[in-house]
Design a protein that fits this description.
By secondary structure, the chain is mainly α. It is built from six helices and no strands. Helix 2 crosses helix 4 (113-120).
Length: 159
């Protein structure tokens, strides 16, 4: 009987952890979308800018917005306790980390580099997730929770 209570408590903790990670993803993604909304409403036409600034900015902002919307959708799945959404969530977090570092490498491009560098300053909506290290702790916590929930489910199916 104690093992059943222990399993139940472990499952409850795993469900709570998934909810925390899900809410963090939803909240940080919403803040990122708000950040992009405020950047879009600003007037950049009078400031000096490199020749491909707007193309670089719209491309980077579009990628960020897709990542942020996916963060909200997958976060909602985690809040609902769907362990099968953990793998897509972890892949999304990898994409967020790559999105944080790849533009910096593209600054070295001889033709588009200055435009990418200028656009990097205002199209970083996913930076909120990176600053609080959600890709690290959120992925680890979500994987732990999914393993706990799946192991209990597999035991139930075998019985």
């Amino acid at each position: 009987m104690t093992s059943a209570n222990g399993d139940s408590a472990s499952q409850h903790r795993a469900a709570v952890v998934l909810k925390i990670v899900g809410w963090a993803s939803v909240a940080l993604s919403a803040v990122g979308l708000w950040y992009h909304a405020t950047c879009v409403s600003a007037d950049y036409s009078r400031a000096p800018r490199p020749p491909y600034f707007f193309q670089a900015w719209y491309t980077m902002a579009g990628i960020n917005i897709v990542l942020l919307i996916a963060g909200i959708a997958l976060g909602i799945g985690l809040i609902r306790g769907l362990a099968k959404w953990v793998t897509p969530f972890v892949v999304l977090q990898l994409a967020v980390v790559l999105d944080a570092f790849i533009p910096g490498a593209l600054w070295l491009h001889p033709r588009f580099g200055p435009s990418i560098a200028a656009a990097s300053g205002i199209s970083g909506g996913t930076i909120f997730q990176v600053v609080v290290l959600l890709p690290i702790w959120g992925s680890i916590a979500a994987i732990w929770a999914a393993r706990r929930l799946r192991s209990r489910h597999e035991e139930w199916v075998r019985a």
